[in-house]
Amino acid sequence: YARLAEAVTTRIAAAELLASRWEALDLMDRGKVDVIQPDVSRAGGLTECLRIAKLADDRGLLCIPHAWKSGLTVAAEIHLSAAACNVPLIEFMVPELWPSIIRSELVEPEFTPRNGVIDLPKASGLGVRLNEDIARKLAWPAAQKTAT
Length: 148
What we know:
Elements: H1 2-7, E1 13-14, H2 21-29, E2 35-36, H3 45-58, E3 62-63, E4 66-67, H4 71-83, E5 91-92, H5 101-104, E6 107-108, E7 129-130, H6 132-138, H7 141-147
Parallel strand pairs: 1-2, 2-3, 4-5
Antiparallel strand pairs: 6-7
Helix pairs in contact: 2-3, 3-4
């Protein structure tokens, strides 16, 4: 990333696969990325992503989280964007372009942007309700055995 960042004037964004703030620090400091893109479901959860956003802000960088997987991920990253000053948006694939049961049925409500904006959920917690029947259906076989 560092060589690419030195060779181009385009902003470099990376990190959707990182697993911790330490990897994010390495990308920001040695990799010289301009935009850090943690995925809350991979990078240690909402609190760790808030730490990553703060580290990016300390360096004058943007944090634009990657949120494609489920409504749970999208909900967490909507809250991240509301809580951190350097998270102006989230990378989000609209449901019509990424049809998936984990996007459309795992949680309610399903998030749909209106004029480029997704409203912050108003219910408690992340603001979504888990469909437990779908969660059981999607669980790994070993998890299904222990849950019954």
